[in-house]
């Protein structure tokens, strides 16, 4: 791992930036994403991605962390131009999603060398793009961790110990947070403040959220505007409860746009919704100062690493 005395930076697709320069951050979203589980809804249009980033910037956004991992159409080579054109910092991911998102042939190819793939993409670059990833994204299952999840999380932990990179975790329908922490932070020795738990808003269990916050991990409330997840109307209460308990510094917000129909340029809420609707609603619940910190200081700490 890099020496503790090294200055922490956030690794973006245009190079490392100081955490204090990250600005207002969408801590979990997707500019490009393609999965066989979402046929016909691929995010694969660079012009639409540019328009979405520009719309987010026009609402005051300054940074987007793309959680699209290995093999799901992240189009790393396109990200620097988009970041440069729009003036928005973009952070790319390595990692691996749930097994259902991949064919068995690809998974077989990765057996025996997954951690090495993650480390290479964090330090040397993704493919031939030269773009270095700034985080590792993995995923749990519904209230459980299957063999695939344990394999990918073990590789993520190994890559973290080699690089210091943060690990972001997709929690299926917001469940399994404590199992993830037991594995990553218990058995595998990853410091809790290097773990970002995603989708906690999808399972509005205040007890689990409190326990996860007490561990020292970051809690991402992402994917708002989805009525079937009952996220928006419960999110203020969840954030207020965590803030009142002293965990406001552990909270993150993200949009998690995963389909073309969800983009604002295609008529959906998209990335701007986070700042257009979610931010003012949360400001009424917990105050403007805390929401400002959740959007700036917290992601700056969550994604900064002494590379």
UniProtKB/TrEMBL annotation:
The keyword Hydrolase applies. It comes from Streptomyces siamensis. Belongs to the metallo-dependent hydrolases superfamily. Phosphotriesterase family. The keyword Repeat does not apply. The modification N6-carboxylysine is found at residue 137. It comes from the Bacteria. InterPro entries: Metal_Hydrolase, Phosphotriesterase. This is Phosphotriesterase. Keywords: Hydrolase, Metal-binding.
């Amino acid at each position: 791992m890099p020496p503790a005395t090294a200055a922490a930076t956030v690794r973006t697709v245009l190079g490392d930036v100081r955490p204090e320069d990250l600005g207002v951050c969408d801590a979990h979203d997707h500019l490009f994403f393609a999965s066989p589980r979402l046929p016909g809804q691929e995010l694969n249009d660079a012009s639409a991605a540019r328009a979405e980033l520009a719309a987010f910037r026009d609402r005051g956004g300054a940074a987007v962390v793309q959680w699209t991992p290995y093999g799901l159409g992240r189009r790393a080579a396109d990200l620097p131009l988009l970041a440069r054109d729009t003036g928005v910092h973009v952070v790319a991911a390595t990692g691996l999603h749930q097994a259902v998102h991949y064919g068995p042939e690809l998974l077989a190819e990765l057996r025996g060398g997954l951690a090495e793939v993650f480390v290479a993409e964090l330090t040397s670059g993704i493919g031939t793009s030269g773009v270095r990833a700034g985080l590792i994204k993995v995923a749990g299952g519904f209230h459980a961790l299957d063999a695939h999840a344990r394999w990918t999380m073990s590789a993520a932990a190994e890559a973290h110990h080699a690089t210091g990179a943060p690990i972001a975790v997709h929690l299926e329908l917001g469940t399994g947070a404590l199992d993830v922490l037991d594995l990553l932070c218990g058995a595998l020795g990853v410091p809790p403040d290097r773990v970002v738990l995603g989708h906690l808003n999808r399972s509005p269990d205040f007890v689990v959220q409190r326990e996860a916050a007490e561990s020292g991990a970051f809690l991402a409330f992402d994917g708002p505007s989805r009525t079937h997840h009952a996220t928006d109307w419960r999110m203020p209460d969840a954030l207020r409860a965590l803030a009142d308990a002293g965990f406001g510094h552990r909270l993150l917000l993200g949009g998690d746009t995963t389909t073309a129909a969800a983009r604002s340029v295609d008529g959906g809420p998209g990335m701007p919704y986070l700042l257009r609707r979610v931010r003012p609603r949360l400001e009424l619940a917990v105050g403007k100062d805390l929401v400002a910190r959740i959007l700036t200081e917290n992601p700056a700490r969550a994604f900064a690493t002494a590379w």
